[in-house]
Design a protein that fits this description.
The complex is a heterodimer of chains A (112) and B (90). By secondary structure, chain A is an alpha+beta fold. Chain A contains two helices and four strands. With 90 residues, chain B is mainly α. The chains are: A alpha+beta (112), B mainly alpha (90).
């Protein structure tokens, strides 16, 4: 079991309910495959520093997951096919830093 | 009288050595790495405020000889800057 930080960027024109769906879809997928979600953070709609597929903004969702490496492979396979997503990034970390959220100021409403 | 003269000469010479080009090492100005001290901020791809300080106007990573960052921290920095670029944060 390893600790992973997983970030997804969704398209700018997805509605709030769609983002919730995406969030649930992947958290269900993780739980089904014997993974543990330690924390999820919603960073909200943020400006991209350069265009990605003609999008100027993106919805960021951040997971902190405890699972095996094989799950990450499957997860990324699914995300590559998902048309609502622009990018994803997984980083293995030794210890989770659960206290600090660097993007809190942008979205006070989404924090709950 | 003679001894006084010698003393004054000695003093003068010692002052002169401070001003010369061949200074001893302790007078040299030496900076330390800003990220290696005890309560330094954590280098992380999410900490954009920190990363932006070490990137030029064109988005290039600044060399460590300008920013005086230690070799180890510079490696961490460049990796986390590249991660932030991938997520379009930088």
């Amino acid at each position: 079991m390893n600790n992973y930080e997983h970030t997804i960027i969704a398209r700018q024109d997805t509605s709030v309910s769609q983002i919730k769906q995406i969030k649930e879809k992947y958290s269900d997928f993780i739980i089904k495959n014997n993974g543990d979600i330690v924390q999820t953070q919603d960073w909200g709609l943020m400006n991209l520093s350069y265009l990605i597929k003609k999008n100027k903004k993106g919805n960021y969702i951040h997971f902190k997951i405890k699972c095996d490496g094989s799950l990450i492979k499957e997860l990324e396979k699914n995300e590559k096919l998902d048309k609502n997503l622009l990018r994803f990034l997984t980083v293995r970390v030794k210890n989770f830093d659960l206290k600090t959220n660097y993007f809190l100021k942008d979205n006070k409403t989404n924090e709950k | 009288m003679k001894s006084k003269k010698i003393n004054s000469k000695k003093n003068k010479s010692s002052n002169f050595s401070k001003l010369s080009i061949f200074q001893p090492n302790k007078y040299k100005f030496k900076k330390t790495c800003p990220l290696s001290s005890k309560d330094a901020p954590i280098v992380d791809y999410k900490n954009i405020k920190l990363l932006k300080r070490y990137v030029s106007e064109n988005g290039k990573i600044l060399p460590s000889r300008i920013t005086n960052i230690s070799q180890k921290k510079q490696r961490e920095l460049s990796l986390s800057i590249k991660r932030a670029r991938n997520l379009a944060l930088l």
